[in-house]
């Protein structure tokens, strides 16, 4: 059984989002807007937020992929 393409695409999008956010923190430290301690906290926050958002999306996607309860249409 292969991994669905939508799952791979979404995961890649979240990886890119995390890399961009880490690049923003790094660039803010490079130009002097953040000191090293704040940049370290920013890196942790970005990583935790990215993983949490991906996990929330992953759970929602998996619940809709093969639902355990099917809707019953009465008409």
TrEMBL record:
Keyword terms, alphabetized? Hydrogen ion transport, Ion transport, Membrane, Transmembrane, Transmembrane helix, Transport
The protein, known as: V-type proton ATPase subunit
What molecular functions are annotated in GO for this chain? proton-transporting ATPase activity, rotational mechanism
User: Which Pfam families does the protein's record reference?
Assistant: ATP_synt_H (PF05493)
Q: Membrane among the record's keywords?
A: yes
Q: Where does it live in the cell?
A: Membrane
Q: Which species is listed as the source?
A: Cylindrotheca closterium
Instruction: Tell me where it mainly resides.
Output: membrane
